[in-house]
Amino acid sequence: MEAALNQALLTGFGSKPILSSTFSRSCILPHKHYTWVSFRAWSPLPCLKSSSKTVRLRCVNVEERAQPAGLDLEGSKKDKLRRKKLVVFVSGGGSNFRAIHEGCVQGSIHGDIVALVTNKSGCGGAEYARGSKIPVILFPRTKDEPEGLSPADLVAALRELEVDFVLLAGYLKLIPIELIQAYPRSILNIHPSLLPAFGGKGYYGMKVHKAVIASGARYSGPTVHFVDEHYDTGRILAQRVVPVSATDNAEELAARVLHEEHQLYVEVANALCEERIIWREDGVPLIQSRENPKKSS
Prior knowledge:
7-stranded mixed β-sheet, about 300 residues, 3-stranded antiparallel β-sheet, alpha/beta, purine biosynthesis, about 30% helix, Formyl_transf_N, GART, 2 domains, single chain, phosphoribosylglycinamide formyltransferase activity, Rossmann fold
């Protein structure tokens, strides 16, 4: 920048300039972004020997100039963010996995799924991944899945893929401590009840909805939470309330909760990819509003 200013002075005064002070101030007009640069320069030319001159130049920031009228500045900020690399874990049909994949393809999630991890090579989620040309990784290694990876090999594989975030979507195995340590505050899970109610080991799938109805609870709904070394005990990030009708059966409640799961997980995954997750001083995660960054939920 100084070289450019020196050149400008040489062009104007034909001598070696001396910069006595500099400062800059930016302003945004409807169509352009300007930076005003002011400085004082001295020149030995006869006509200017006994005086100094203040020069004020208007520089246009190359990266931000000529913004079209009506451009969403938040959209511009989003375009500058690197698209995040996601890996999804499933054990069954993978309807949340499909919703996330569609969100990535359609642009509602600022990221891409680079692999699917499953403990069942023949599950519906794995079949969908293969049909969508998404690599499938088997984990863990078991008698039924001898080609599955060890925890260390799984972490190495995700590192090789440069994965940013891990999303569990109906994965029924406990996540190994090696993965949790490798991806701190970067692993999410979705659970079909309002945690901490109806969570923990043994609470999954239809068992959750049957327990909710049997309890007489008036509300249920999905919870997205960060993952720790236990079942369903990580910090809660987002929830969506679903009323429970007095005449509901487990299947009816499950269908309504699943509908909300698909929407909620896509919204949260996008907030994660847009780097809008902040942490309160007491360790509670919050989601920043895109429209108003000062507002969180």
